[in-house]
Amino acid sequence: MKRRTFMISAAGTAAGMALMPRLAFAETGRIDWYTSSDTNILDFWTNTVAPAFEAANPGVSINLVDGGDSSGIISIGERAMAAKLANADPQADFFESANALLPSGAIDAGVYTNIKEAGLSNYSKVNPLAIESDYSLPYRGSQVLLAYDTTKLAPADAPKSWDDLVSWIKANPGQFVYNRPDKGGSGGNFVRRAIHQANGLDPSAFTVDNYTEEFGNDALGKAWALLQDIAPSLYDGGAYSSGNTQSIQLLAQGVVAMTPVWSDQVLQAIDQGVLPADTGLVQLQDLALAGGFTRSIVIENGTNRDAALKLADFILSEEIQSAILTELGGFPGVSWEYVSPELRERFADIVPTSIPTFPSGDWEPAINDGWYRNVAPNVDRAS
Amino acid sequence: MSEATEAEHRPLIDATGDSRRPTGLLLVGIPVLLMAWLVVWPIINAIVRTIWRPDQTGDYGLDFSSYGFFFSDGYSLANLSITLWTTGVCALFLLVICLPIALYLRFAQGPLPGFVQALAIFPMFVPSIILAYAFIRVLGPNGMVDIILNSVGLPKIRTPYLTPWGPVIGLVWDNIPLTVLILLSGLGSVANQAIEAARDVGANRLQVFWHIIMPRISNSILVALSFSILGIFSAFTLPYLLGPAAPEMMGPFMQRTFREVNDPLNAMTQAVITFGFCIAFGLFYVRSVARNQRK
Fold this sequence. Notes:
The complex is a heterodimer.
Chain A: H1 3-19, E1 30-35, H2 39-56, E2 61-66, H3 70-85, E3 94-95, E4 137-148, H4 162-171, H5 185-198, H6 213-230, H7 244-252, E5 258-262, H8 263-271, E6 280-282, E7 291-298, H9 305-314, H10 318-328, E8 331-332, H11 341-346, H12 363-374
Parallel strand pairs in A: 1-2, 1-3
Antiparallel strand pairs in A: 3-7, 4-5, 4-6, 4-7, 4-8
Chain B: H1 2-9, H2 23-51, E1 52-54, E2 60-62, H3 65-72, H4 74-107, H5 112-121, H6 128-139, H7 144-151, H8 165-187, H9 192-200, H10 205-233, H11 237-242, H12 250-259, H13 264-294
Antiparallel strand pairs in B: 1-2
Helix pairs in contact in B: 2-13, 4-8, 4-10, 8-10, 9-10, 10-13, 12-13
């Protein structure tokens, strides 16, 4: 950002804060809902979830608020903790996407509702692989898949394992691109899949707190070797796009034949005609590319706690879980046996046998820095 | 009657006697305060926090190790040198492109220069993010240029997208309006009589340019270049979207070190080094302005 632009926006923010209403009260019957997700999620709630919930529960409405990013949600969590101490109104009932461990101490302070004990009728349907804490509710997921151009690669020949993928990339130089791992999850999780590959295909080897420099250098070093090996066969002899959308754009322009994509983004791109309807999607079957779940939280001391719990139960219903698949292009938070057979059939190709995840914690900066130092520059590109 | 004449003789800014009011100071005060708060204070803060740090035992002391790391780390140095390379190449291209445009606009007659000027100023109204996506659609792989070349049976170009030339093209285009405007204002000080006099004694076009025009606008060239160089050196959006993953320019590098690598200390060190370079460019500007006012 240019300094001038920053000055203008900083001044604008300061002015906006001064003009903001000083007082706001939570209303009974109006759930104060916050999200840190992208606009496609907010649109999904505005157009699908909220109208359906309000129709099923007369007298209850949802106040949808974009909390910005995850630090925005954390600060509202901190506000709820402060409100709990002061016995005041936190003006928040429901977080669409949050981490139960943040802000630290929120669970001990009794600010987050124990969803497991709350007696939700649909809780037993939740995919056990996705549960991270009793205080958060995984209701949707997305996973990284490989999207490919079916005019260049027949679906029967699409790679189903890492080794197949590597030999395909080498046999078709310039036809594969993934984005820089810190600039978007599709490339990020492709890199993480390489880390799994280099370390015995065992996602449980990496936990949120087992990063040490020695283990990290060893485990990541082996993955960098794998990625350096394919680099000369990538698009333009080792170029990396600068985000999820840019990868999809390169695929859409017919520049590359295959790229890793987020499931929800690619289904939306196909839906909007950015990608042709016959775009192929395939998941590696030896170990799927990593993905993640979005977890919701109910605020224990919120004015509308009971209504918010009703909402939590509602988003696990078959109606919303099917809509997550068909309209959002995400994965359901409930186990696959609770999804209608017709949808299970339709999305069979992208249904993973497992949903590997990769922890954040200290691993994330190590991966981000290591990739730039070891994989990105080591290619001699004529420019 | 005498009052009226007195009023006529009053200078535009009255700096004498009891009419000296703090209004002027107040007007200047707001931007100066904002500058101090949003620019000067963060700079001092960053410098102090990168060199006055606690050691292992928690005692504060002078510590230049983060600077030592930057200047011994090949990756960081490669990023610094690509930034300097991009800035230098952009400055050269800006001069080569903008000087002829400005000369044309100054001396051409008729309605056409109006359109040329509008075209030259147009990039000013295009946000850089839109420029970046337009660039990808036109010059990117299988973009409009490729489609046109293909339709007349020519081979595709090797696209500059995701190479160091991507940001160069984008930044040059983005900085054309400012450079043209500054050069044009400089050319305003070249008197037509001086050129006509030179022509009368038989000077050709090149001689007129070199001996009459250049001496009068060298200052404007310096100002225009230091302005664009300052912007280009710290550019973020265009190198981020159009440039290669590595080496990266200082703007994206700093942002990534701060957010993605969670390393505020090294990000601040990179920032201090970046504004060290910017101060050097800024001094050129200040010196040329000061020299101009002395004249």
